[in-house]
Amino acid sequence: MSWWDTITSTPALLAASAVTLSAALFVRGRADPSVVSEQAKEVASAAGADTSRAKMAQASDPITPSQLAQYDGSDPSKPIYVAIKGRVFDVSGKKEMYGKGAGYNVFAGRDASKGLGMSSLDPKDAVSDYSSLNEAQIKTLDQWEGFFEKRYSVVGKVVAE
Ligand code: HEM
User: Fold this and answer.
1) What is the best residue among 20, 80, 97 to mutate for testing ligand 1's pocket, by most ligand atoms within 8 Å of CB?
2) With DSSP H G I counted as helix, E B as strand and the rest as coil, what are the percentages for the chain, rounded to 5?
3) Dihedral of the alpha carbons of 109, 114, 117, 119, in degrees to the nearest 10
4) What is the pLDDT of residue 31?
5) What is one GO cellular-component annotation here (predicted)?
6) Domain boundaries, the chain
7) In degrees rounded to 5, what are phi and psi of residue 30?
8) What's the CATH fold of domain 59-161?
9) Cβ < 6 Å from ligand 1: which residues?
10) Which of 51, 50, 71, 76 lies closest to 61 in space, CA to CA?
């Protein structure tokens, strides 16, 4: 078997290349997650990758908003979490984006659904109540949700204090 056969017959490797591809597409597409998520979905499903179930299995751990706030990147020894529609994602692998002082730190340690839907980096928009979003913004939020599902593990769900 040639090295090419080995690479192309291994779903994990193809899935890994889907992630690389989506990162590359994302850089090109800037803040347009729809392009990324559709492409990644195609490649991942071609590779036979399970894009949802494995991650959902970890999703039931309850996390209150004040617990979530401890994972905002200010303590480098702790993971960094971002929640979308109550689902908590571990984004620790992207400290350069979500860590202290980084461009997207505004989303860290909180459910930032509204801000993601609005494409807003304003801290006052980084809240969980997204009931004021219009249809297009809800769509944007859903696309971010899909983007995070593919990239990050779900580590819990936000519950009331
Ligand atoms: C001039 C405006 C912007 C530029 C040039 C820009 C650029 C980028 C680039 C290049 C990435 C990909 C980085 C990577 O994959 O490593 C990215 C990711 C991202 N951007 Fe922006 N962005 C802009 C505005 C915004 C705004 C307004 C939002 C608010 C929602 C936003 C939210 C995000 C998020 C959530 C990610 C995903 C980070 C991740 O988890 O990998 N961006 N942006």
Assistant:
1) 97
2) 55, 10, 35
3) -70
4) 58
5) membrane
6) 1-52, 59-161
7) 50, -130
8) Flavocytochrome B2; Chain A, domain 1 (3.10.120)
9) 23, 26-27, 30-31, 91, 94, 97, 104, 116, 119-121
10) 71
Ligand 1 center–CA 31 separation, angstroms: 5
Q: Average pLDDT over the chain, rounded to whole?
A: 79
Q: 23-27, 61-65, 94-98: lowest mean pLDDT where?
A: 23-27
Q: Tell me what pLDDT residue 58 has.
A: 63
115 and 21 in contact (C-beta within 8 Å)?
Answer: no
pLDDT, tens only, 109-135: 999 999 999 999 999 999 999 999 999
Residue 54 pLDDT > 90: no
Contact by Cβ (8 Å): 156, 59: yes
The two structure tokens encoding residue 51: 């894009």
Helices (H) and strands (E) in the chain, counts: 8, 4
